Amino acid sequence: MKKNILTGLRPTGNLHLGHYFGACQNYLKMQDDYNFYLEIADVQALTDNFNNPEKVRKNVVEITMDLLAIGLDPKKVHFFIQSRIPEIAELTVFYSNLVTVARLQRNPTVKNEIAQKKELFGNQGESITYGFLGYPVSQAADITVFNGELIPVGDDQLPLLEQCREIVRKFNSIYGKTLNEPEQVLSTTTRVKGLDGNEKMGKSLGNAIYLIDDVETVSKKIMNAVTDTSKIKKDDPANPDVCMVYYYHKLVNSKNIDTVCQECKKGHRGCVQCKRELIEAMTNFLKPIQENRKYYEEHPEIVHNILNEGTNAAKKTAEEQMKKVKQAMKIDY
Prior knowledge:
Blueprint: E1 4-9, H1 17-30, E2 35-40, H2 42-45, H3 53-69, E3 77-81, H4 86-96, H5 101-106, H6 108-121, H7 130-133, H8 135-145, E4 150-153, H9 158-175, E5 183-186, H10 215-223, H11 244-252, H12 257-266, H13 271-298, H14 300-328
Helix pairs in contact: 3-13, 4-8, 4-14, 8-9, 10-13, 11-13
């Protein structure tokens, strides 16, 4: 039998290149070999968007269309909406008794995200809610309610998965062997940098190219991308390794990458020319994705049916798992 694989995306905006190269390429490879559950994590999105529910609701459909457009097959992947699986919330409550506040505060992923919020929002970043602090507990419920055996993660998400394994071990030690410890499937792609050179491409950082970006938007973003600041004149030699334009050429224009590199080093390539070539390559890369997406935009009923069918299938799995959990906890009244 195929192993269960569980992953999720927060519907806080459309997918960008960081999502595509950092995670979604792996999803495309794995959808044939596993029983794949893909969560649209609207409840988790509300932990820091609770005052903007319209944004989250809109992006449930938006992000689903993005995922379908890149080639994920609803016949192979169960697309489901987190809030429509009440067993996740129920299991989150049970798990909350097994984790201390101090342990959550020590979680490196949570600490980093809190630090980012403070950097972006100043003193407002101090106002961390209970829901935000506890989202690793909710993630543990996401994984285990579907008996997730393999979890695709990047290096930055490993602390969250380890937190899940700790909860599983604690549960099993108290209530008997009921849950399986999930294993990670590390991404084979390193995190994609932002156009500004930031180590992370992110929605809140304003340094991302989105899969839905049109030619004009792509052009503006790439023309403002960071290049080698030591290059003053058009014919000056430059270091492509510190240039974000070259970095993106490697992602979407690999067939010409040697030419780009050598001409840059020898001063035979101006930055404007290089950016224009990247705009063309990026547009060609995004075109088939956007053409696929247009079909779903014109047929929203298909997207809703996919979400309904996937959610119904996921709920059946969650119900069966919760029967085992409640039986182990002696609350199967």
